[in-house]
Amino acid sequence: MKIVKVEAIPFAIPYVKPLRFASGEVHTADHVLVRVHTDEGLVGTAEAPPRPYTYGETQESIVAVVDKIFAPQILGLTLLERESVHERLDRTVGNPTAKAAIDMALWDTLGQAAGMPVSGLLGGYTDRMRVSHMVGFASAEKMVAEAERVRGTYGVTTFKVKVGRRPYTEDVAACRALREALGDDVELYIDGNRGWTAPESARVLRELADLNLMFAEELCPADDVLGRRWLVERCPVPFIADESATRAGEVTRELLGGSATAISVKTARTGFTASQRVLHECEGLGVEVVMGNQIDGQVGTLCSVAFGSAHRHSARYAGELSNFLDMTDDLLTEPLTIENGTLRVREGAGLGIDIDPDKLARYRQDI
Ligand code: MUC
Ligand code: MG
Predict the structure, then answer these.
(1) Locate the Mandelate racemase/muconate lactonizing enzyme C-terminal domain: which residues (predicted)?
(2) Residue 158: CB within 6 Å of ligand 1?
């Protein structure tokens, strides 16, 4: 079965409230829907969320790189030649979400062709994941109110707290308020998106030592090589590399260099094929992984839960699967629901991504 067409459709859906963090803020989900068509009429779907402040991709650059570079390189290859697809895509450095969306759309097509769910094809470990909710920058009171609302409404009991502000005392106060309000039973961890220096990060970790944090993520830049190594040596919990370890080679470099002791796996940037390489590398090395969220919509979240639940090693911790809750609308015919703190994989062949044509027509930016 051959690939005959690859579409990149820009769409934009506003957020109810922006997500703010140390490296940027998101007001609108200006994503790209990627569709891979086969000669037998199957259509695989995924979404690419541009994160300009992290990887330099924009909605426009994703559409351009898919239309002008990636699609022409893979047309004519079959669904069973994914290794060749990646060989061709990987000639181009960067563009992680564009590559990842093509990979996941291909897997969706493969699942449909086989009449099997992609999650089962990937590993089929379980059919659901516990959900971790990301709490963005706001006053301590507002951050507590959000976490309490998400716990009360969806049963979520794991929270990733965005930190990395200056002065750091604001973040220390917010973390403390969250622990006091939510109690000892919730799981809390922090993500600094490179906002602090290594010494500032060390100071914060000391001040938060009594809060029983589960992880610390990207508190300072990995490019401060010796500072980051110094920090990670002193960090009392696994130190997650996220944007510093975006592919298997970078994961190796960060882990062997002592700049990280855990890894965030994001299907939005490594799709399924490269995410499996990262995951298996980490599993082989005995390194913990967390399923991260690149501020995905429902399409991306479905991809993330399909992958995370497919493997024992990625299903261990709660996955970051709730950013879509803050969108005013989405593209799926049947919206995702989080119940009892859990998100389930969609049943059926492929990824179960059924796009509502009216919604796509309303939100697409190209016609
Ligand atoms: C995260 O884990 O950092 C914020 C920026 C990005 O690329 O992903 C999010 C969440
Ligand atoms: Mg992160």
Answers:
(1) 140-238
(2) no
> Is residue 276 annotated as a catalytic residue, yes or no?
no
Question: Is the pLDDT assigned to residue 181 strictly greater than 90?
Answer: yes
Q: Considering the candidates 30, 108, 112, 162, report the single residue annotated as catalytic.
A: 162
Distances (CA, A) of 349 to 41, 110, 219, 331: 15, 9, 40, 19
pTM of the model: 0.98
Confidence of residue 362 (pLDDT cuts 50, 70, 90): very high
Query: Same domain for 217 and 273?
Result: yes
CA distance 300 to 289: 18
Backbone angles phi, psi at 236, to 5 degrees: -80, -10
CA distance 304 to 302: 5
> How far is the C-alpha of 316 from the C-alpha of 305, rounded, in Å?
12
Task: Find out whether the beta carbon of 219 lies less than 6 Å from any atom of ligand 1.
Answer: no
Tell me what ipTM this predicted complex has.
0.98
Q: Which amino acid is at 54?
A: T
Averaged confidence pLDDT in the chain: 98
Neighbours of ion ligand 2 (CB under 5 A): 191, 217, 242
Same domain, 101 and 141: no
User: Do residue 308 and residue 284 come from a single domain?
Assistant: yes
Cα–Cα distance measured from residue 276 to residue 271, given in angstroms and rounded to the nearest whole number: 9
| DSSP-based three-state secondary structure for 288 | strand
The answer to whether 162 and 320 are in contact (CB under 8 A) is no
Sequence-distant (6+) residues with CB within 8 A of 49 are: 29, 31, 97, 268, 294, 295, 296, 297, 300
> Domain with 83 in it: what CATH number?
3.30.390.10
Task: For residues 103 and 307, give the distance between their C-alpha atoms in angstroms, rounded to a whole number.
Answer: 13
Shared domain check, 215 and 235: yes
Single residue among 80, 115, 150 that ends a domain in this structure: 115
What would the two tokens of residue 23 be?
């490296």
* Residue in the structure block whose two tokens are 């991709």: 57
Find the CATH number of the domain harbouring 244: 3.20.20.120
